[in-house]
Amino acid sequence: MSSASAKEFSKNAYPKTLLSIVASVGGLATFLLLASTVLVSQPIGSTVRGYFYGVDSSEKSDSDSSLRHSVSEPSNIVSPYVDAGESNSTFSPGRENEVISQKGDTKSAESDGSDGKGTLFEKHRPPQSQDKNDVSDLGQVESENSNDKFPHSKETREEDVDRGSSSDNAQTDLTDVVESSAATTNSSQANVADSDCDLYQGKWIYDSAGPLYTNNSCPVLTQMQNCQGNGRPDKDYENWRWKPSECDLPRFDPKKFLELMRGKTLAFIGDSVARNQMESMLCILWQVEVPKNRGNKKMQRYYFRSTSTMIIRIWSSWLIHQTTEPFDFAPAGVTKLHLDAPDEGFMQYITDFDVIVLSSGHWFAKQSVYILNNEIVGGQLWWPDKSKKQKINNIEAFGVSVDTILTSMGTHPNYTGLTILRSFSPDHYEGGAWNTGGSCTGKVSPASELVENGFTNIMHEKQVNGFNSAVKKMNNKSRMKLMDITEAFSYRHDGHPGPYRSPDPNKITKRGPGGKPPPQDCLHWCMPGPVDTWNELVFDIIRREFDDRQRNSS
Known about the structure:
With 554 residues, this protein is of the alpha/beta class. It has helices spanning 3-39, 44-53, 57-68, 254-260, 272-286, 344-347, 394-410, 454-472, 486-490, 531-553; strands spanning 113-114, 120-124, 202-207, 240-244, 265-270, 292-293, 300-304, 309-315, 320-323, 336-342, 355-359, 368-372, 375-380, 418-422, 479-483. It has ten helices and 15 strands. The termini are far apart. Residues 1-14, 38-78, 83-120 and 122-193 have low confidence and may be disordered.
């Protein structure tokens, strides 16, 4: 081959070689793209994510166990009043470390209307939005069971609760009304409630923007409150929002909340309804950041690294000192409540908390002995000497307990935090008690007419009296606020799990031939659902208080 022909061959060969290389690289890139698509999808995706984020199946199991048993609480389910949250916590496999975005539900209400007291239930249909919630900061569950500086929570086993509830409140169909232009619920609008506005007088409006999360976008909600996951067929109960009469209650912005609580700790202390509210808060915040689980079997503790914010829950059935040791003529085994002594299980740690939300009341329907000034003064479902009159019944005992715990906090020399007392959460066992045929089955919209519940009313009255009494005795730098949700939530008979408290596909959800209702929970709240409004109120209370403190210090 001549020199000229060799050069000509070289010119022709190189383009072919280059084309072959380009084709090979393109084919490889296509293969990698297809392979990565397959690998990051379920179910393989969870394994891959586990590999890259350092969460394997054994670690996931440990995390699940830590979350399910973060607080020593009763695990036997004997009634709707049982807080079986830890034994029933739902963790979506492979999803513990995900921030899951979700679209607002656009389902419209069947009907709306007004109640007999002039409270208007309105539809609000903002333009449909396909925007998903922002997602950021994938994290992982972290269990730190050693060196726990927070309180030991006593293990308490729940028993049957025997008391009556609300009278039969037949649902009144809601009639269509005009759209409310005053109700602004779009999360993009900067709604700020007036600092002088009464947040607790208002109306429920239908908001087709949907809830702040879904049951599938929150891996920590208790299964008994996972109404959609348990097969509840309707969803409108998720879309009603509370609209104060004099102002707008801002839609919860989790990023703003975490920034507001930067470097601070929020503690939910109390019964199973406190757990319900704490899980709602976590579900909302989970949409923007996955917290570190720093809890253990004694308590729950979630740390949001971006703002060093801690969310805590401590179990305390009555919020006051309790013991099962024998006392006077009350034998061992029966719970004794010292009405004039706070629960030391959490009181010694309140100086670590910036905001405390208290929840109690429903456990006063359980068997217990009441001790005041070192004397047995009454009992609930326990009083051996029927000829001897009790000095205090369970309702009065509840009022004394509220005064005791709030006074202890308001006079603690080193406590400077904000205490929020959430008022008595109404149940809706219509037609009887939880164990005598009471039911909330079939309720799909807020009640249009409020039927008074005598037990709820008197419990609320005693609680408010206890709050007012404690406020008068405050002598430290702490602050107290009453979050008075009782009347507003008395309309929300549609917000409970009812018979949809279990994922069992064979569960009974309809009344029997004789009209007997199925077993159900008309005390706790579906998630998502009305309970999320509580945390919107908490957010606004905290914002107002922090703003006031800043103005006063400047």
